[in-house]
Write a structure and sequence with these properties.
Chains A, B, C, D, E, F: InterPro entries: ClpP/crotonase-like_dom_sf, Ech1-like, Enoyl-CoA_hydra/iso, Enoyl-CoA_hydra_C. The structure is a homohexamer. Chain A is α/β, with parallel strands linked by helices. The first copy, chain A, is built from 12 helices and 9 strands. In chain A, helix 6 packs across helix 7 and helix 10 packs antiparallel against helix 11. The longest helix of chain A is centred in the middle third of the chain and has 24 residues. Chains in contact: A-B, A-C, A-D, A-F, B-C, B-D, B-E, B-F, C-D, C-E, C-F, D-E, D-F, E-F.
Chain lengths: 285, 285, 285, 285, 285, 285
């Protein structure tokens, strides 16, 4: 899709999220979870709107970095019970048919969360207040996680009588270590900001929701000034390497860079460095 | 094996461990390393009794959570030298035959430790005093690790002139990070409780052995009140995902949950949540 | 190559590094990055000299542990711009030919860094001052990382308009966690000693460059006194297990130890332990 | 999408393919490559229409089996040169940007071919005349391959100065063996029906295009009478197991069947077998 | 277990199989499927007796090769319907509990078949008449497959309304190619001896059941005269390599052979070759 | 190394092989196993000369295809007994040290064989007479295998009392199927040309050694006229994909082609096709 079309599509708006360009933030787009009255519970609409928004932003070269935030007092209260119930098929059909249908629905929800990783641009998430259940699945797929000091995290699925199935159990171990991840998932206990930072779940803790908002946007602006080819290649290489041996990962980035190093951004960076000035990168993706 | 048979087998007792039901702990069983005079050194008998005990507990639906503790002043002083020596075959045979025999014996010991992961119920380990060599192999296979502040951990195998082969080198990197793991394994230095917590090896540090005992049982009781289907599914999914790519892990839990979400526990959890009461889960495994 | 030949080769010296035997350190060799005027920038010569030096040391049984340090005020300022530019082929040829050539050059540089892992003896790195870009690629391949409190680390490649391709993106996630790694790689921010320790990148922080020098050598001397078979087997098993499932890693070390446990070092360790004396290990590799 | 909607969408037709229900073939749909004047060369439109058609058929329970055939004298002459040229970006942009754009376009074309595997229903392909280049990529993703005795196959990409990138190099080795696959891909030679059968590329060779048409439909009708849950599970399990170890594949199908065996189709099959009658399966997917 | 104990256990006999030492066949044991009146249908008893017999044979060094045959007119008619029905839990419990129970039962049956691979000694299977459903799962796990010209094979599970879950779908693709395997599994058609040989499923086709019996035992006697260390190492290396990359498989066999090459069998083979006589191997496993 | 240097090095000659440019074969080099009096047994010198020769040829752009043949009446009688004996360390040292040394020697021999795969240019092997033991390891690493009708193949290692460790057990299953491979490796039987062709080990059988010689060179000349970028990319992609999932392999070739499709060879191929003339490719690697 061409950028203008994508912009036009974005402009039509969404029912569960809002996508804006924050003031004076060249290259930065912000996606708001926008159902504050439901504490941004993740509804079926959300699961279709989020991947669509990210896919549109991916087509817009001037969208270089995405910030994900939540409206209202809490970032996210998890998957909405009605969405969960809608997922489980009603009685009549035979067990096999219901099971197959259920499996496909779960795969669709998973793909919605994985859209954050599929998006080539980095996604910075800013968490305030509660981030529970499906909210943790969501942030585990983001690239940089920040929060304010009142935030807490809870892998709450066992308390609903189920094993989490939207990515937390798969992504959290690589982020906080296997031991921390399984303890959080089994106990469903609250993890507060300081411990979350110490475990590696969170990169930066800000002292208030306001500072969080400013801080996350500042990180985003900094990334937006960097080379798009470099930023995107870094995100892609790390996600790809996660599923390969070290040697396979090295070979992958060598193949990738065999074209990417012929970028004019590298030339510009070298020139700027010799001329002792800030580089101005051109690559647009 | 049916539950009554398994209970009867358990009742016969063991020589190196003791299995009890702690007072007032519905659903919780405790396995004691029970050779305090040998600082709970792991003997050949232990390596056959532990997997048998866990396999029996796995057949008893009312055993929902297992706590592993050590009698006497130390949790575990590692593999007993006599067991180690018994493993290495004596001279006469040719090198190839001895080597093949040795390899099979190591695989048997490894399987004994891996029985902790194979057990569907979560295993909480409570470490006090020393946890050395084979003791670290053992706790690395547990699901939740607690200790008291006087506890220390030592990957001591290099000091015996060998590379650890019961799981520490394989499981520790995912728990504490690759850099920490290799440093501990090469230097064989003592790791104390506070740093162990900071590295992610330990989830909770208690201030005394008594508090540890109480605390570990309390965590166990909390888990025992949760949905068995949810707890077991969470453990299974995380262990399975450890060996798969993220995408394969997601597909696995989707297939798993395609049946498990048709559980009456989910229904009960949703109902209880609407009725603002504590859920009472029914699933028994 | 036999040890005497390897010693003779080493004695010829190198242009970008210096290899010495520090006083009174039986079994310890030290490799110095030795271009202090260029802040030890990694030149094309370095990329061929490092693997040659390590390969020679690997042939010398009395080299049991290697310490890697940097001369001058900084450990390493990263890949030299001239080396980077030399890598990228000049215009005339068609894009495919240039790309293929570029890819092969990257693979050569990667292999140079991976030589640290290929070396059977443990490599301890001591970082002071700046460790930037290619410097981080280098230390990520080492076995034990120490630094002094003024040291800082920077995954700086995005600021050169490229994705790091010498191993940082592949090795860092297993060391500091995936979340920390991607944040460091995207923001290119400085990571100081204390946070580096907390993340698991660094095992020990010393209070000054002098203490660092002494401390790193002391760790090396301690390792040099341990069983060579045990130390080398531990390094090999952990690197191999990194790319296997836990079960496959267990099977690998069982196969390995099926021969290695027939070592006289194990016998000596057991004897020494019974006789309550320090063991003297014989294995030489 | 619900079945009626999907049927309506299908009814709107396509420009490069035609989807029909062959006479008297309950449960069978046929997709025709429908540009005989271009020898069914694969155009950009085709690459978007094929996955859409398959995805619609996947939503229609009465579409139990799909037959893929080509109109005109040849099955498929490969990717259309104009599509290939459109893929390669024109000069102006810098190499890195062009390369990244090219990579994304290739991924889209690959996904189009992989849609055949993603479709849960089995796809039987019937090849007559030439099947060249992209045509081989396409049939390698199908489940059952038949041809008439005049058919031939050619992995022709090297003759276009490129390595095949739509799946042949990845899927062919598992089908015909690694040695046969690499020989075919390097030499670009023609492989005729008899040798194709002998190599395992083709399951059935018919003596004429007419017999092929009848024969492929007959196989399809036979599959359509079988249990949908069983057929789909078999396709899914084999594709999933292809990327897992044997042990992981076994565990996957055990998890899958833990729900699917509670199907009424199994009950019906057992009953029918006892009553010595043909079963009538109910599952609809 | 020591060899004498194992022999004594074997001597107690089994209800579904018979284990004998065929006349004049030093080192060869034969396991007969022994329910000819049920066409050797695989009952629950069989699934527990087969792994026990193989495990006992594995403890007896004089059992160097195992031949698996079927009594009566057919090799095996597949899993017994009553066993299948016993696997599927009856109604009362909730779906999740039933599903979890079912999954565990399938895993037990799978392990029973996999016991053929776990047995260190080679297993030669001799198929006459029908080999259907579970029979194909069984032979796919054997090492060498022979048949007589009247034999046929049928992956019949889809006709029972289910996807095969005892190993056929996982093991067959590596044996006959992915294309042949999926066609056989989807169509459930009969595969006769000649085509089975051509596909690589069968190594040798004999002209009658009598010749098959003689021929299979002759192959077994030939293997029994070879070096036990070599034969067992070959089986182990190939099964292990199946789940590794080529490079990992090479490293595995290098580690394995680092002990095994110090065998006296190699010495004897070299000596015998120089002395132009038949070697007499000593290794016993 | 630059081409002229490489040519000069090649001109110095080898003791176990001979490298020539056959008459009138633009772009083709031929490597002869050149110890006919020893039936081309593989000596330690061979294991160091082969990888050196291939590495030199890899630096010479005019060497586009390599043909590997054997002088004298047989292609190769396997690893020389003296080389094998030299590998196994003599008595004095302790078992662990000998084992570690042995392991490293095996890895070196393996790397020598793997050099055939590491060479970017395709290697066609022409087998006449016997190809036994190490000879099979060697040809299994080649890209295209031809033979004359009197040739035979024998995985003979078990008859030497050992499991093959130079690649046969790892590479053969993908070429001839797992069942055929394990049968050949366990029985050590002779496999003759016709069956070798039928199994997929051999691509072409010629009627005499003379025809084989001519035929192999003709295939080589045909490949030499094709685009170097395309041929090398095809070999690289297939070898890489062998160790990846299909999806990962697709992603790899997409990344690779993102640069390679900007080749002038593709342009030339398209132009030549429109102008109905033979393309003349320019890429040189």
């Amino acid at each position: 899709m061409d950028p203008a079309q994508a912009e036009a599509e974005l402009a039509k708006g969404f029912s569960t999220i809002e996508v804006i360009r924050p003031d004076r933030s060249e290259g930065v787009y912000q996606v708001w979870l926008n159902r504050p009255s439901r504490r941004n519970a993740l509804s079926l609409d959300f699961f279709s709107e989020l991947p669509r928004a990210l896919s549109l932003l991916d087509c817009i070269p001037s969208a270089r970095v995405i910030v994900l935030s939540g409206r209202g007092p809490h970032f996210c209260s998890g998957i909405e019970v009605s969405a969960l119930v809608a997922t489980v098929p009603s009685e009549p059909a035979d067990v096999a048919t219901r099971s197959e249908s259920l499996r496909r629905k779960i795969l669709v929800l998973q793909d919605s969360i994985s859209a954050v990783e599929k998006c080539r641009k980095p996604v910075i998430v800013a968490v305030h207040g509660a981030c529970v259940g499906g909210g943790v699945d969501l942030i585990a797929a983001c690239d940089i996680r920040c929060c304010e000091q009142g935030a807490f995290f809870q892998v709450k699925e066992v308390d609903l009588g189920l094993a989490a199935d939207l990515g937390t159990l798969q992504r959290l171990p690589a982020i906080v270590g296997f031991g921390n991840a399984i303890e959080l998932a089994l106990t469903a206990r609250r993890l507060y900001a300081a411990e979350a930072k110490q475990m590696g779940l969170i990169s930066r803790v800000f002292s208030s929701p306001e500072d969080l908002e400013k801080g996350a946007l500042q990180i985003a602006r900094d990334l937006a000034e960097k080379s798009a080819v470099a930023i995107m290649g870094t995100k892609a290489a790390m996600l790809k390497s996660r599923d390969l041996t070290v040697q396979q990962g090295l070979e992958h980035i060598a193949t990738w860079n065999s074209a990417m190093l012929m970028s004019s951004d590298l030339e510009e960076a070298v020139k700027a460095s010799l001329e002792k000035r800030k580089p101005v990168f051109f690559s647009k993706l």
